[in-house]
Design brief:
Helix content: 25-40%
Number of strands: 5
Order of helices and strands: EHHEEHEE
Number of helices: 3
CATH topology: Heat Shock Protein 90
Strand order of the largest sheet: 1-2-3-5-4
Radius of gyration: 17 Å
Structural class: alpha+beta
Distance between the termini: 55 Å
Length: about 140
């Protein structure tokens, strides 16, 4: 099982988020059994969303963990806040967010939030290594 752990700080949060995405790409590129490009981009998107949420809402630091399993990639973000992410109506006008957590839940097989003994939490998303092929409707042959 391949794993990596990365500490992310919000000294320059946009740079930290970009660094987390790059480290996720490097992790995925280094796997012995690679994931398809579509699955890799989904993992990177989920990393970006979870790290962004942790830096924005949980005190400005977090640790990113990535684990490759036979059928899935686990993205785990630990932060010092005990407050779990919540579903809320996305804010289309004021720009205060609300899009990330619902999107992560749609993309993942499963998500899990667990409290840690030190008062923080770990948010996990389990993403398929090989997403099912997209259904393309069959087009009937036109008469000639």
């Amino acid at each position: 099982m391949d794993t990596v752990s990365v500490d992310v700080a919000a000294a320059r949060s946009s740079a930290s988020i970009a660094d987390a995405r790059e480290r996720a790409r490097a992790f995925l590129d280094g796997l012995v059994c690679p994931v398809r490009a579509e699955a890799a981009e989904t993992v990177v998107l989920v990393v970006s969303e979870l790290v962004t949420n942790a830096l924005r809402h949980a005190g400005g630091t977090c640790t990113l963990g990535l684990t490759a399993r036979p059928a899935s990639i686990e993205v785990a973000v630990h932060d010092p806040s005990p407050q779990p992410p919540r579903m809320r109506t996305p804010d289309l006008l004021a720009g205060t967010g609300g899009f990330g957590w619902p999107m992560v839940n749609r993309l993942a097989h499963a998500t899990r939030v667990t409290a840690t003994p030190n008062g923080g939490k770990t948010v996990r998303a389990f993403l398929p290594r090989h997403p099912p092929p997209q259904h393309v409707p069959h087009r009937a042959a036109l008469p000639r």
